Amino acid sequence: MSLEGEDAAAVRRTAVGDLRALAHPVRLRILSLLTGAELSAAEIARELEITHANASYHLRLLRDSGHIQPAGKEKVRGGVAQRYRYDVSKEFDPRGPGEPGEYPTSYGAQLMYAALAAELQRRGRAVVTGPASANLTTDAELWVDPDRWRALRDRVFEASRELHEAAQPPHTPGTVRVSATIALFRMEDR
């Protein structure tokens, strides 16, 4: 069911609802595209090589969950196309109440991490390698001081925000296509 206007604004966002809206590789790719540009369903469909109907379906889920906003309409061949945008500055600040990455259910977190893993595998097929590529990979399961953890997490959050602010429309001359997947979370000490 798609909500319109004031009804959409009244949707109560929850951590689990947010995860369900985001826990799909196509929706993660759409958010990436909409970070640097306002796009229509048709433009997203062309860029992601999916059907217009599929792009519209995923856009509707992201809009109804409050992750993207309408960004105006334009006339296209006798019709009207809705453009959307993703304003990362309006998203949940993970430094707010509670610890980032701690969700009300482990099932919700598992959905999100599974979607991130699938997207990372897809992106990995397009990795540029060699000395000029300046790639960075870190994978670790560590024990650190809680105060140091919070300080490091906050620095990574700020770098992530800066990267989103630097995003340009797809294929903008003078830009390079990059991938960033960051998942920092506290683990149970077993």
UniProtKB/TrEMBL annotation:
Which UniProt keywords are listed? DNA-binding, Transcription, Transcription regulation
Residue ranges spanning the membrane: these are none
Q: In this entry, which stretches build a coiled coil?
A: none
Name the Pfam families on file: HTH_20
Which InterPro entries has this protein been placed in? ArsR-like_HTH, HTH_ArsR_DNA-bd_dom, Metal_resp_trans_reg, WH-like_DNA-bd_sf, WH_DNA-bd_sf
Q: Which GO terms describe its molecular function?
A: DNA binding; DNA-binding transcription factor activity
Q: Where is the HTH arsR-type domain?
A: 17-100
- What is the name of this protein? HTH arsR-type domain-containing protein
Q: Which organism is it from?
A: Catellatospora bangladeshensis
Cite the source lineage. Answer: Bacteria, Bacillati, Actinomycetota, Actinomycetes, Micromonosporales
